Amino acid sequence: MSDCLFCKIAAGEIPSKKIYEDDLVFAFYDIDPQAPVHYLVIPKQHIPSCAAITPENSAVVARCFEVIASTAKQLGISEFRVVSNCGKQAGQSVDHLHFHVLSGRDMTWPPG
Ligand code: AMP
Known about the structure:
By secondary structure, this protein is of the alpha+beta class. It contains two helices and five strands; from the N terminus they run H-E-E-E-H-E-E. The protein has helices at 5-10, 58-75; strands spanning 18-21, 25-29, 37-43, 81-83, 99-103. A five-stranded antiparallel beta sheet has the order 1-2-3-5-4, with helices on one face. The radius of gyration is 13 Å and the shape is globular.
């Protein structure tokens, strides 16, 4: 989508601290880290949020989770939290599906 921040990051039109890229998925460090390790894994395809996952587009979501596992291994983290905020009330600020990967500190539950 032409005016989407994460579409532009995935296309290399806006710079990011890239961790991993393939034809379907892009992973990069969050600009405002909430943990010692905090990065985002996104599909290159524009999917607005978890609420827009369907049988037609869910294969890329599985690929995102494969990349979460492989990048965590690459970065040497074995304990981490994966979060996807869906909708304004849940804290979503960028309307392109993304999975936060957070690690390197104790996490609390439930999240605030
Ligand atoms: P959310 O609030 O769950 O939608 O997550 C969006 C995340 O994107 C936030 O954690 C932001 O810090 C992060 N973010 C926003 N702009 C950028 C950017 N240009 N590069 C990297 N991360 C970003």
